[in-house]
Design brief:
alpha+beta; Nuclear Transport Factor 2, Chain: A; 15% strand; disordered N terminus
């Protein structure tokens, strides 16, 4: 977990998946870096020195001409933002070179989707020169074609406390009527909500579900999430951003694209992810819970309830505290809230871990961040171990003290403001103050508790 907390908090009740006979629908922890917040409004173009470096490219203008072109791009982007505000598709498409091209089709879809969203803000900001097009690509698009990378911001009214940023690289061509956007494939362009084909929006009491999954499924997710908001508030309290955004792509490929990941990066172990940018020392302002359709739909109804409640626990913690915590504590607390009230036997839920314990391969320490990386290992036992650690703390000291323990660590301004903090060490140091025992002593008892569970019929 990076100090800037520009991460995605991931989780899916691994233990429940195994306990209910659906092994393989596991959970994990990834370090998913998202684009940082951009500057609102249209600002100046490329940084000094950038243009001259790129002069070797056949499609990059001279410096003076570049400034003129950058200003024209800024006007073009302002027109696109104004078109969205005015809900004018003709004005939006007027910025596109050929409406009948594949890119034109994607832009038509994007506009139709944008106006379905409850946008509070939509604007373009910083513009910078992208790497020069290759001679072959420049010849294909047009001899004067060039590429610019733009940063934009948007927010969902009633849900985001601050705008989120996005980035796109546009290929520009000059026509008799001025500059137009010809494509977006000549550089890094992140997939956004409005790029999903068949986008629909379903509103619940406290949530909004956005995506292209079947509508009946989205309404079901909305109902589960509304219930989860109440369950999370019952444990964590009500001082968090209870207006939640659920994103439901229809394919695993779309799920991976939205997260800027490859589908092969262990994502088959992940049923849902909470993602969003958090600046140092700040609250999360615009988290999204993104559903992995294949893994999530394989879960039984109570498994889906656990997963969404787990994710909303992350949303609650991230939107009401300012510091990262040890991964075992973050994921263990999320699972504790997710399973709360379901009255499921712990032996059954933690079957994956307890099988290892019976074989003499149980954990010697609390799970570390590396144990939650689905690209490196099977992560279900780490989730089970973390859940049982937090559950055992609640057994011994009560829910109120355990929540206060988490909040104290997650709100401490001393939790490593420079470099990479040792989050496990920070949690260990907080043990005596919160519980009157060292973490090492608790771990000894926790390992004994695992042995007891492993050899007790459930």
């Amino acid at each position: 977990m990076t100090r800037a907390r520009r991460i995605a908090a991931i989780a899916v009740c691994a233990g429940l998946a195994v306990g209910l006979g659906i092994a393989g629908q596991l959970s994990g922890k990834l370090d998913l870096h998202r684009i940082g917040r951009g500057v609102g409004g249209v600002t100046s173009a490329a940084p000094p020195g950038r243009a001259s470096t790129a002069q070797a490219g056949s499609s990059v203008p001279l410096v003076d001409e570049q400034n003129v072109r950058m200003a024209a791009v800024q006007d073009l982007l302002s027109a696109r933002a104004a078109a969205v505000k005015a809900r004018s598709k003709s004005a939006w498409m007027a910025t596109v070179d050929r409406s009948g091209s594949a890119f034109g089709g994607r832009q038509s879809l994007a506009f139709d989707n944008l106006i379905k969203l409850p946008l509070g803000q939509f604007s373009f900001g910083a513009v910078r020169l992208a790497p020069a097009l290759s001679p072959a690509r420049a010849q294909q698009v047009g001899p004067q074609a060039w590429a610019a990378t733009v940063t934009g911001t948007y927010s969902l009214a009633g849900f985001d406390r601050a705008p989120r940023s996005f980035e796109a690289t546009y290929t520009l061509v000059e026509r008799p009527g001025g500059w137009r956007i010809a494509d977006d494939i000549d550089g890094a362009t992140a997939v956004q909500l409005w790029d999903l084909p068949g986008l629909r929006v379903v509103r619940g009491q406290s949530v909004i579900v956005i995506g292209n999954a079947p509508e009946a499924r989205m309404r079901d997710y909305s109902a589960i999430a509304d219930s989860a908001v109440r369950r999370v508030s019952g444990v964590w309290g009500t001082h968090w951003n209870t207006h939640v955004v659920i994103v439901t792509p229809s394919t695993t490929e779309e799920f991976a694209n939205l997260l800027l990941r490859s589908p092969g990066d262990g994502l088959d172990q992940v049923a849902a992810i909470t993602e969003g940018t958090i600046d140092p020392g700040q609250l999360a302002q615009g988290d999204r819970v993104v559903i992995n359709p294949e893994a999530f739909t394989a879960l039984p109804p109570n498994g889906r309830q656990v997963v969404i409640t787990h994710e909303l626990t992350h949303v609650a913690a991230r939107s009401s505290t300012t510091e990262p915590v040890s991964t075992w504590l973050s994921e263990g607390m999320a699972d504790y809230v997710g399973y709360s009230g379901l009255d499921l036997p712990r032996q059954r839920v933690a079957q994956d871990l307890l099988t290892l314990v019976r074989a003499g391969k149980g954990p010697q320490t609390l799970p570390t961040a590396a144990d939650f990386d689905p690209a490196r290992t099977s992560i279900a036992p780490s989730y089970s171990g973390s859940w049982l650690a937090v559950s055992r703390l609640v057994d011994l000291y009560g829910q109120t003290k355990v929540v206060a323990f988490y909040r104290a660590i997650a709100s401490s301004p001393t939790a490593g403001r420079s470099g990479q903090p040792d989050l496990d060490a920070i949690a260990a140091r907080a043990f005596p103050r919160s519980f009157g025992v060292t973490e090492a002593l608790f771990v000894v008892g926790w390992r004994g508790y695992l042995q007891t569970l492993a050899h007790t019929p459930g």
